[in-house]
Write a structure and sequence with these properties.
The complex is a heterodimer of chains A (174) and B (500). Chain A has one domain (26-33, 44-169): Rossmann fold, CATH 3.40.50. Chain A contains 6 helices and 5 strands; from the N terminus they run ααβαββαβαβα. Chain A has helices spanning 3-14, 26-39, 60-69, 103-112, 123-128, 159-173; strands spanning 48-54, 80-82, 91-95, 118-122, 150-152. Chain B has helices at residues 4-7, 27-39, 85-96, 186-189, 195-202, 210-225, 231-259, 263-284, 304-329, 332-338, 346-351, 356-360, 369-373, 392-416, 469-475, 484-491, 495-499; strands at 13-14, 17-18, 22-25, 43-50, 53-59, 63-69, 74-76, 99-101, 145-150, 162-168, 171-178, 293-294, 297-298, 431-438, 443-450, 456-462. In chain B, α5 packs antiparallel against α6, α8 packs antiparallel against α9 and α9 packs antiparallel against α14. In chain B, 54% of the residues are buried. Classes of the chains: A alpha/beta (174), B alpha+beta (500).
Chain lengths: 174, 500
C-alpha cells in the first residue's frame, strides 16, 4: 500500500482533528447589535464571506488567519469563507497599522464591497497602530479611514480569538 | 585577486565596530573599490546609509564593512558591478536623499509620493512631500503582448505588493515587481528607542521570522556593547529559531503543493504546523515566539516539562515528515508541475548573493549558521543540504531536507543544553555592531549604532528577500501565468521585510 493510501485510511478512521468552536463573545454581541440595526439585512443566510486586506502588517496576523482556515480550526464548517474578490464579500478584515502607501488600495477595496458591509480590525496594529504608531508612513489604525465595527485584540490574535470574533459577528448578522 | 582582508589592510579601520572591521573610505577609495568589485568575487551583504554616509558590507572568507562619507550627497553606484544593489540604492535615495550616481533606474522605490515628508531620514532637511508619482513600468516591445497587473491586494490572504506581467498568450515575457506598499518607516521609528522597545519593533518586521530578527538584533547589540551572553540563552535561542524554521518550511511545503492543486498536503502540513505552534505556546508562552529574545539573553526558560513536550513533538515530526516526503516523491502528477518550473540559474543566484532556500537550491552553499557561524551552532553537528537544479522541485526538496536537519539540531539541543542563567545586563556604552543570522529565508544582516545612553542611533535590518525577489523576476520568464503562484510560493519571500 502506498504511503498516501495508508495516510488517507488512517485519516478516515482516526476521526477529524478539528477542535470544537469557541463560544461567542457576548460583550461584542451587545456592541454589534447597536450597529446591526443600522445595517440590518432582511434576506441573509447564515453564511459570511470575508475579504482580507493587509495594510502594512508584519504577516504575523496573516499566519493566524491561515491557521483558522486550516484543518484544526476549520472556519468553513461555520459557513465563513475567505473570498478572492471584494465584490463577493460581507466583511473586510484589515490587518496592519495602515501604511500611507496602502491607504488608497484599502479604500478602494472597501468601496468595492457591496453594502451592507462590516469592517474588522485585526491585531493591535490595525486597532491603534500598535508599536508602529506616529510616523511619516503610517496612519496608525484602520479607524482613521474606515468605520470599524469590531476589533480583535492581540499581537497576533490567537486563532481561537479570531474565530470567536468571526462567530460573534456572524451571529449578529444573521 | 586580493581577498577582502588584504585589500583593505592599508585602510583606516574604525575601532568601535564589532565583530568585523569597518573601513572608512574616501571618494577615491570608494571608486577604487568599485573597480576591484568588478574583478573580484566578494558577495554584497548589504548597503545602507546613516546621515550622509553610505555603508556597504561584503563577504569572501571574512566579512568587511566599508563606509564612505558623501560630502556632496552623492556616491558612485554599485549597480554596474553588483546588480543586487539597485533596490537598496533606490531605497537610500528615497529615505536619505543621497544620490547614487550612474544608477540606470531612477524611479523611486519605497516612496510612492504618499508620505507626509520626502527623504524622511535625511539629516539636512525635512523634505516636503514628493507629491504624486507617475511610476512607469519597464516597456517590452513585441507583437501581441499584453499586460496583467496584479496587486497590491491579491486574491488570497497574502501580503501586499504589485506584480506587472507582460505576457505573450499564456507565457510570461517579463515580470516586474513593485513594492513599498507596506512601508511602515521602521528605520525611522526605531531611532531613539531603548533596547527593549527596539527589539519589540525589530521582532515585528516580518512576523514569520520574528525569532531570527530578534536574535540578529540581540547579537548586534551584544557585539556593539561587548556583552557576554550566558550559554543557556544561546541554546534556547537556537531552539526557538529551529522551531520557527520547521514551522515555516512545513507550511511552505504544504502551500506549494496546494498551489498545484494537491490540497491534501496542505491540510497535513497545517496540522503539523499547528502542533508546533501549540507546543511553542506551552513551552514559551507565545505561538510565534515573539518578544522572547532580548539583548543580553532570553526572557523565558525551558522547563523540564518543556523538554518532554518538545521531545515528543520531535519524535512525531520525524515520522510525519518522512511520510509526507515519501508521498511527494511518489506523486508524478505533482512533480510534473514542479520539475523544470521557475528555474533560478545558479550563476544569477551567485551574482545576487542569494542565500536561504532559494540560493541553496541553486547550488549556493552559504548558511550563516556555518559561516560566519554563531553559538551554539559551533557545538552542534549538522550538514547544510544543497541542490543544483534551482527549480520549484529542488526548492521543495531543499525545504524537506532542511526540516530534517532542524529536527536533528533540536534533538541535539534538547540533549546537550547547558544549565545556567538566562540573561546578562547589556552594558550602557556606545558602539557599532553587526550580526548575520540565518532565518528560514536566508541570512538576515542587522547593523546597529548605539548611543552612550544605550539608545538606538541607527539600525538597519536587511532581509534576505532583498536578494531573492529579483531572482523571481528572472525565474518566471518563459513560464506560464498559471505557474506564477507556485513559483512565488516556492520562493516565499517577505514583503514586509523589504518594505520595512
Ligand atoms: S498586530 Fe502584531 S502580528 Fe499583527 S500585524 Fe501587527 S505586529 Fe504583526
Amino acid at each position: 500500500m502506498s504511503s498516501l493510501t495508508r495516510l488517507l485510511f488512517s485519516e478516515l478512521f482516526n476521526g477529524p482533528r478539528t477542535i470544537d468552536g469557541p463560544s461567542i463573545d457576548y460583550l461584542d454581541v451587545e456592541k454589534l447589535k447597536l450597529i446591526a440595526k443600522k445595517y440590518h439585512r432582511k434576506h441573509r443566510g447564515r453564511s459570511m464571506y470575508i475579504r482580507e486586506c493587509d495594510a502594512g502588517s508584519c504577516n504575523g496576523c496573516e499566519l493566524e488567519i491561515h491557521a483558522v482556515n486550516g484543518p484544526i480550526y476549520d472556519l468553513e464548517r461555520f459557513g465563513i469563507r475567505f473570498a478572492s474578490s471584494p465584490r463577493h464579500v460581507d466583511v473586510l478584515l484589515v490587518t496592519g497599522p495602515v501604511s500611507s502607501n496602502m491607504t488608497e488600495a484599502l479604500q478602494r477595496t472597501y468601496a468595492a464591497i457591496p453594502s451592507p458591509k462590516w469592517v474588522l480590525a485585526m491585531g493591535d496594529c490595525a486597532i491603534n497602530g500598535g508599536c508602529f504608531n506616529s510616523n511619516y508612513a503610517v496612519l496608525g489604525g484602520v479607524h482613521h479611514i474606515l468605520p470599524v465595527d469590531l476589533t480583535i485584540i492581540g499581537c497576533p490574535p490567537t486563532p481561537i480569538k479570531l474565530l470567536s470574533s468571526l462567530l460573534t459577528l456572524l451571529k449578529v448578522m444573521s | 585577486m586580493p581577498d577582502l582582508k588584504d585589500y583593505f589592510s592599508r585602510t583606516h579601520a574604525v575601532p568601535e565596530h564589532k565583530p568585523w572591521s569597518r573601513f572608512q573610505l574616501d571618494e577615491h577609495g570608494w571608486n577604487d573599490m568599485i573597480h576591484q568589485l568588478a574583478v573580484s568575487d566578494w558577495t554584497l551583504l548589504g548597503l545602507w546609509a546613516y546621515g550622509n554616509e553610505v555603508y556597504a558590507a561584503f563577504r569572501d572568507v571574512t566579512i568587511a564593512v566599508v563606509s564612505f562619507e558623501c560630502r556632496e550627497r552623492r556616491f558612485k553606484s554599485l549597480t554596474e558591478v553588483r546588480p543586487a544593489a539597485a533596490r537598496l540604492e533606490r531605497t537610500i535615495r528615497d529615505l536619505f536623499g543621497l544620490i547614487p550616481e550612474g544608477i540606470a533606474d531612477f524611479r523611486p522605490w519605497l516612496d510612492h509620493g504618499r508620505w507626509s515628508q520626502s527623504q524622511p531620514l535625511s539629516n539636512v532637511h525635512c523634505g516636503i512631500p514628493t507629491g504624486s508619482i507617475d511610476y512607469h513600468f519597464l516597456s517590452t516591445d513585441g507583437q501581441n503582448l499584453h499586460q496583467i497587473p496584479v496587486g497590491p491586494v491579491h486574491a488570497g490572504v497574502i501580503e501586499s505588493g504589485h506584480f506587472r506581467f507582460t505576457c505573450s498568450g499564456e507565457t510570461i515575457v517579463r515580470l516586474e515587481e513593485r513594492f513599498g506598499y507596506k512601508h511602515r518607516g521602521i528605520e525611522g521609528l526605531i531611532v531613539g528607542k531603548n533596547l527593549i522597545e527596539a527589539s519589540k519593533i525589530i521582532g515585528r518586521i516580518s512576523g514569520d521570522s520574528t525569532v531570527a530578527y530578534a536574535i540578529a538584533f540581540a547579537r548586534a547589540v551584544e557585539a556593539a556593547t561587548c556583552t557576554e551572553v550566558p550559554p543557556r540563552a544561546h541554546w534556547i535561542r537556537a531552539l526557538m529559531s529551529e522551531l520557527e524554521r520547521i514551522s515555516n518550511h512545513i507550511f511552505d511545503f504544504g502551500a506549494i503543493c496546494n498551489d498545484v492543486a494537491f490540497s491534501f498536503m496542505l491540510s497535513k502540513c497545517m496540522t503539523i504546523r499547528e502542533q508546533i505552534l501549540q507546543t511553542n505556546n506551552i513551552c514559551f508562552g507565545h505561538r510565534l515566539l515573539m518578544d522572547k529574545i532580548i539583548p543580553g539573553g532570553v526572557t523565558i526558560d525551558l522547563t523540564s516539562e518543556g523538554v518532554r513536550v518538545l521531545s515528543d513533538l520531535i519524535k512525531e515530526l520525524r515520522k510525519q515528515i518522512c511520510k509526507l516526503a515519501d508521498i511527494y516523491d511518489n506523486m508524478p502528477i505533482l512533480q510534473n508541475r514542479t520539475i523544470g518550473t521557475g528555474i533560478v540559474k545558479s550563476a544569477l543566484a551567485h551574482r545576487f548573493g542569494a542565500g536561504g532556500v532559494v540560493g541553496r537550491s541553486s547550488s549556493q552553499s552559504c548558511d550563516a549558521r556555518k559561516n560566519p557561524g554563531y553559538p551554539p551552532y559551533d557545538d552542534l553537528n549538522f550538514d547544510v543540504p544543497v541542490h543544483l537544479e534551482g527549480d520549484v522541485n529542488s526548492r521543495i526538496l531543499q525545504r524537506i531536507e532542511e526540516i530534517q536537519v532542524s529536527i536533528g539540531l533540536i534533538e541535539q539541543i534538547l540533549k546537550l543544553i547547558p544549565d545556567g542563567s538566562l540573561f546578562n545586563q547589556t552594558k550602557k556604552c556606545d558602539g557599532e555592531g553587526m550580526a548575520l543570522i540565518e532565518s528560514f529565508r536566508g541570512e538576515i544582516l542587522l547593523w546597529i549604532r548605539l548611543s552612550k545612553t544605550g539608545h538606538v542611533l541607527r539600525c538597519h535590518p536587511r532581509d534576505p528577500s532583498w536578494f531573492q525577489w529579483p531572482l523571481l523576476e528572472s525565474a518566471i520568464e518563459g513560464n506560464i501565468v498559471a505557474d506564477f503562484p507556485v513559483c512565488n510560493k516556492s520562493f516565499n519571500c517577505s514583503y514586509s521585510g523589504v518594505d520595512l
